[in-house]
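Hi all, long-time lurker, first post. I run a small reading group and we've been trying to get comfortable going from sequence to structure in the token notation. Rather than ask abstract questions, I figured I'd post a concrete chain and ask someone more experienced to write out its structure so we can walk through it together at our next meeting. Sequence below, copied exactly:
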Amino acid sequence: MPGRRRFPLAWLGVIPFFVYATAFLLLPSGVVLVGAFKSDKGSFTLKNMSQVIHTPEYIHAFRTSIELSLVTAVGGGIFGLLLAYAAARSGTPRFIRPILTTFSGVAANFAGVPLAFAFIATIGNLGIVTKFLKDQLGVGIYQHGFSLFSFTGLAIVYLYFQIPLMILVIAPAVDGLRAEWREASSNLGASSYQYWRHIGFPVLLPSVLGATILLFGNSFAAYATASQLTGSAVNIVPIIIGQNIGGDVLSNPRLSEALAFGMIVVIAVSMLLYALVQRRASRWMK
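-- Answer (accepted) --
Happy to help. Here is the structure in token form:
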């Protein structure tokens, strides 16, 4: 019929994405949202959320999770930015960037049991590096208070996938630093410090902040690596949720959903901040 609007065929390509997002993101989030406010008998209740808010153990778990995420996000952001810039600068050999990008793509997704085992085999109590330092150099890293199975050790392991993720996310922003800006500032008599103070850093700042927020969310939601590496030695929210869901004694699905709802709120806030910052950063990447 004339005048009838036809459904654009281009939308067919994104249907699988919407189906996947609905099945594995929206529906599970909705189940958690409803379950956090339901009792075991199915009636509405605030008991689960009240227990999360007023129990010191759970408050400490959220605090530890946020601290761990902040440390690894800031650390991964700094080192990732420096590596990305070093690979993109004009004086760096061309073969460095493809190698770094390929490695980052693999390392950013290397987590869970394999990553935990790799670090245990490397710098664990009887790890290869640990034994070499002690036998050959007389340096015992565990004799000075360090432990791979502590907050510090877990942060080091998280940096293994946080730094590569930062490299992948920030590389387009680093490419957005045009050579003409550096040449123009140099021709006007600006020093390297003045260039970064008034041009380079202000341009990169929104992207750096956005990428750091993304790293925060990535670390905050990580479970498998921490579970396999530290067990319950480091009190973070994902491990407590796992204990309440899979434990024979401590099983409490409704409480787990209340804890998960708290995590969703934190992640949602971080993603909102990420979206706002990226809107500002996008104008420099056109």
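A couple of things your group might point at:
The longest helix spans residues 56-88.
The chain has twelve helices and no strands.
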